[in-house]
Inverse folding.
């Protein structure tokens, strides 16, 4: 596959401490990816952090929300993405109920993301309620990315994909969550779908980088879903997404041209066609003759 590269092949891999050290520096560019091909493209685009998000459930597997994707599916996608990612920090997203049952369960599953999925860190959703899990995972040597605000695994409790922390009390609760995660040892925190004012307060209050998605320009980095950026997912586009291309439309139109060419006999053309060598062709002619 030919992919234009903006990063040199021997660029040093990004590490969790490296991301941690970028607080207040050049904004950290993050994107999701779900397999070898998207991992390779994301990596060659120069993204600093590549998340195999549980959004795979919606944008790749066609589910209504992120709740149905399993540990085994996440590991399958993470391992595929790991084959394409050489520089960016590859983070595996722990799926619904893969870390909420007990600290032991969380630790075992986080470990699987590294040993089987070949990720370099894990992400899990929640604030103060997941602190014991985060501490245990970090203590085991696995870097953790936090995620607060609109945490899609809580969509049933929120009553939909709704912006969070819209009141002063809501912002205070979110800040407490961020401080608890920082104390538990996360290397960065994703903040999703909150007012800019909330994101700013938290970004100023914590010593680790904040990675915003629908949290305004004030965070230390940004993350978006691959299919949203490229215009490949049409079921639902949040207000905070900028579609940089319309690859969904372009792909449909391109495949339509291919189907038309097949139907009209315009594909394959001579240059796409294989031929036998002279010698074998001669033998084939004899076989044909003998059969008549
Ligand atoms: O699953 C996902 O893609 C995410 C990011 C958008 C933060 O959690």
């Amino acid at each position: 596959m030919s992919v234009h590269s903006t990063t040199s092949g021997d660029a040093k891999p990004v590490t969790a401490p490296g991301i941690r050290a970028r607080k207040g520096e050049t904004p950290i560019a993050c994107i999701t990816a779900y397999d070898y091909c998207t991992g390779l493209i994301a990596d060659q685009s120069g993204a600093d952090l590549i998340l195999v998000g549980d959004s795979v459930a919606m944008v790749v597997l066609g589910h209504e929300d992120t709740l149905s994707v399993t540990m085994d599916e996440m590991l399958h996608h993470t391992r595929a993405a790991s084959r394409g990612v050489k520089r960016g920090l590859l983070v595996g997203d722990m799926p619904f109920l893969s870390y909420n049952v007990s600290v032991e369960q969380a630790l075992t599953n986080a470990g699987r993301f590294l040993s089987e999925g070949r990720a370099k860190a894990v992400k899990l959703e929640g604030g103060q309620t997941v602190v014991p899990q985060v501490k245990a995972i970090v203590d085991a040597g696995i870097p953790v990315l936090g995620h607060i605000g609109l945490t899609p695994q809580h969509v049933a409790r929120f009553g939909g994909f709704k912006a969070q922390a819209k009141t002063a009390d809501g912002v205070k609760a979110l800040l407490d969550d961020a401080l608890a995660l920082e104390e538990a040892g996360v290397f960065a925190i994703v903040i999703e779908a909150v007012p800019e004012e909330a994101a700013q307060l938290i970004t100023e209050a914590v010593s680790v980088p904040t990675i915003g998605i629908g949290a305004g320009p004030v965070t230390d980095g940004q993350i978006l879903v691959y299919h949203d950026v490229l215009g490949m997912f049409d079921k639902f586009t949040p207000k905070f997404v900028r579609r940089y291309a319309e690859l969904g439309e372009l792909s449909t139109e391109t495949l339509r041209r291919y189907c038309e060419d097949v139907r009209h006999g315009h594909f394959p053309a001579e240059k796409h066609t294989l031929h036998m060598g002279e010698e074998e062709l001669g033998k084939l002619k004899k076989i044909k003759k003998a059969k008549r």
The chain has two domains: 5-245, 251-290. Residues 32, 51, 53-55, 93, 147, 190, 192, 213, 223, 225 surround 3-methyl-2-oxobutanoic acid (CB under 6 Å). The radius of gyration is 24 Å.
